[in-house]
Amino acid sequence: MQIYGPSQVHGAQHVQGPHATRSLEQAAKPETQGVGDRLDISEAGRIASQMAEVPDIRADRVESLRAAILEGTYETEDKLDLAVERLLDEIA
């Protein structure tokens, strides 16, 4: 640190008086405003919140499909198309 002499010393400064004070009664009252906190959530936010509550895997649906596949009763669009093609081949 270097000191260059008295040129950096400031002269006397103005002294301010005490700040205005409130009475004890006024200070005890909380200041209330008519506006409260507000939160707006978009429709996309609501949907995302609902989706977060849904489990990733619907175990009941998986189990019913697994059982249908094992029993041979699970029908897919491909299976139906193949059956229609075979039926049309037999008729023609």
Provide the gyration radius in Å: 40 Å
Query: What is the helix tally?
Result: 4
Shape category: elongated
The percent range for strand residues is under 5%
- Give the helix proportion (percent range): 40-55%
Average pLDDT number: 80
Amino-to-carboxy terminus distance: 105 Å
How would you characterize the overall build of this protein?
This protein is mainly α and 92 residues long. It has a domain at 41-92. It is 48% helix and 0% strand. The chain is built from four helices and no strands. The protein has helices spanning 24-28, 43-53, 59-71, 77-91. The protein is elongated, with a radius of gyration of 40 Å. It starts with 23 loop residues before the first helix and ends with a helix. The relative contact order is 0.04. The model has no long low-confidence stretch (mean pLDDT 80).
Give me a quick take on this structure:
This protein has helices at residues 24-28, 43-53, 59-71, 77-91. By secondary structure, the protein is mainly alpha-helical.
Produce the secondary structure layout.
Elements: H1 24-28, H2 43-53, H3 59-71, H4 77-91
What descriptors fit this protein?
single chain; mainly alpha
